[in-house]
Amino acid sequence: MVDRAPRLAVWKFASCDGCQLTFLDCEDELLSVAARVEIAYFLEASSAPGPGPYDLSLVEGSITTPEDLERIRHVRRVSKRLVTIGACATAGGIQALRDFADVKEFAAVVYARPDYIATLDRSTPVAAHVPVDFELRGCPPDRHQLLEVISAFLAGRRPVVPAHSVCVECKARGNACVMVAHGTPCLGPVTQAGCGALCPTFNRGCYGCFGPMESPNHASLNHWMRGLGMSTPELVRIYRTYHATTEPFRRAAEEAQESGEEE
Amino acid sequence: MIGGPHPMTPALYRVRSRRPDRVDTVTLTLEPLRGECPPFHPGQFTMLYAPGVGEIAVSISGRARSGGYTQTIRAVGAVSAALCGKRPGDVVGVRGPYGQGWGLRAAAGLDVVVAAGGLGLAPLRPLVRALLGDRCGRISVIVGSRAPDLLLYPGDLARWTRQGADVRVIVDHPDHAWRGPVGLVTRLIDRIVFEPRRTYAFVCGPEAMMRDTAAELVRRGVAPGRVELSLERNMKCAVARCGHCQFGPLFVCEDGPVLRYDRVAPMLAVPEL
Amino acid sequence: MDAVVIDSLEPLVDELRSRGYAVVGPVVRERVIRFEEIASADRLARGWTDVQEPGRYRLAEGAGEMVFSFAASPDSAKSYTQPPRQTLFRMRGEQIEEAEEDAPRVALLGVRACDLAAIAVQDRVFLGGRHPDPAYLRRRRALLLVAVNCAVPGGTCFCVSMHTGPRATTGFDLALTELAAPHRFVVETGSERGEQIVAALPRRPASAEDLAASAEVSRDAAEHMGRHVETEGIQERLSAHDSPRWTQVGARCLTCTNCTMVCPTCFCTTVEDATSFTDGTAERIERWDSCFTLDFSEVNGTPVRGSNAGRYRQWLTHKFSTWIDQFGMSGCVGCGRCITWCPVGIDVTEELANLP
């Protein structure tokens, strides 16, 4: 353990700032965090960034431009530990939907001068470019999990961020299964916990924003959800959101397409 | 009447001394803040709690002169690393001792083969000491180590030799100074002398090593009921309430960790049991 | 005490509440029968019934004045005997303190024979071993059980196969049988506590007709089990570790843990460590865990049971076979919750019937 307070940095890449806002939203705890660590770089909260190196870097956002590529390598160089926070930094985010289409075509349609747009063909997670010490899922991440990661880092233990399904939290919270009771399609069984089963608690199916759980069985779930009335395009669409390019969800959408063609 | 402390609440112990054994392994001597260390049987383990970090099962490798437990920990995860980092004066939590130890009495009057792989020597250490203390038969101790510098308790091994045990070491990855045999611990079975039909064996190490060693001993005529293994499963509670260490009908924490080969051999053959 | 008849549940609820019990009973919430605290018997799910099949649960109207015309709710007594999450202890400096969470008095109104059997199983697990749990005992003692004899078993029920129902014979403070025309309840007592409560209610002795009608309810229920399990030779059948059936069910299983979460006897837990930001206090928490997670069997970074098939086999063989070796009783009480609440409708009775 270091004698001085550990230095924390928060970095932003292609993202909506929602993950950083989750951190700011920790309110009460944030003061305690500030007492234990030196928040040395956090543009969202302060305009006076301190220089590196940093003991812990939290990175929000995906890598989408050539400049991002350079900057993430810099962040890695100046950080002892690098933790990605949120679906963009961990999985490429909603903007990774570009991977399924032609970015040049988008740019030509949207921008008057598409040649001004310097963007990569794909939106990729941070771990595709530099080693990452821990990936925190969620769109946005859960504030308790975010605090847990910082707290575990300070205590030198493994963060309690289980990789099992949302169902574990859903049942511990006392919810009845929305799929069984209401016939509402739900990605909870194939999605990693962490949100506290937020959507099912409000009688919505899980949208999978924490990405695939440790052993997702999408083929079985897809089969059942078809029985609940979901069409092939609907099945493809529910997997192509925040974790569209994460391997198990990419396969899940493909499996839905293939099994749809068979029928 | 049910009362007293919750079975999941540790007693607090102070680190009395710390001895680095190898690059990643440390032996701590632990003494309770209040009262005395409960007695233990060789082969038993405790749950060691690094405050705020977590708890792991660690076998007891001996009793210090001061009365405390000596426990050898290898830093492989956050909890074991935190425990390895403890210094004299630091406080840790201890629950136990737990589990079924080695069948010391069943071995009386027989030749004894003690086979250890890596850190598996730790729970066998108090057994060998007890064997040397109260019997005069043939005792062979065969030890497999990944590399010469990873060998555990070299001082004890030398002492046991002086006390009459046939102690042999084999390594997987020799360095240039190594003059001894190279390979797996099962190869040493050839080199020791024992009368299979009058032999009792105690085996501890990685599961594959235990399976192979036990099978080899049995092939040579040792009765399966006279071979004991110390199984490793995910022990979280040590009091048969968390379910994690189940192995078929067994709770390894309470029915084991030491189990007879004739009982577990069929189960060890089932994948993912 | 001989059985008595009461015409209304209101005095019972009032009496329990006046004795300091939070009365928890079946109500309709979000189209599901749930157990929650009620202030009055008016809140109970009067007139509702349920339709249960593998992976599907629906409520239906049509039970008229009947209050208990449905089968098992997703809620069992487990949340009360073994909360999903509890603090074990806190440690600060060289002080360690057990979190003696208080056990408020709860009267569970409407538990079924299978639930009582499940509580007996949990008693064996938490109190009958070498390391009894004083916190469990506190909660258990604070629990008053008002059982209801099942009249309308669900499509996934098989308590008759597991010899746990449908009639409550032991383990309750009070047991009610709901009768129609005229609407009334036959009340049996199973404890001194129960007798004291009945003594305070407006009541009349049960007539021979009342008792016959009450017995008929259970006879009829026993004949309408939705599912069946052949328990004869079950341990032998479950020793077929290499049956292809495991791979087949593994292909369907989501490893989502729902079956274990709704199971009234599944007791497995894990622990979590936390440290306070403010003063560094360390805390250990015990929470429900499931043999369907990968962490559950992890040894040195690798799960012993990595495949879906391996994890499903662990669950089923433990529940119906090795549980008997460990605790001298089956881990299954035949409530059918795991069948109804499996999101993809895996049916344990079908799996068992198709082994080896």
UniProtKB/TrEMBL annotation, chain C:
GO terms for molecular function: iron-sulfur cluster binding; metal ion binding. PROSITE patterns: 4FE4S_FER_1, 4FE4S_FER_2. Residues 242-274, 320-351 form the 4Fe-4S ferredoxin-type domain. Keywords: Iron, Iron-sulfur, Metal-binding. Pfam families: Fer4_22. It comes from the Bacteria. InterPro entries: 4Fe4S_Fe-S-bd, 4Fe4S_Fe_S_CS. The keyword Iron-sulfur applies. The keyword Metal-binding applies. This is Sulfite reductase subunit A. The lineage of its organism: Bacteria, Bacillati, Actinomycetota, Actinomycetes, Streptosporangiales.
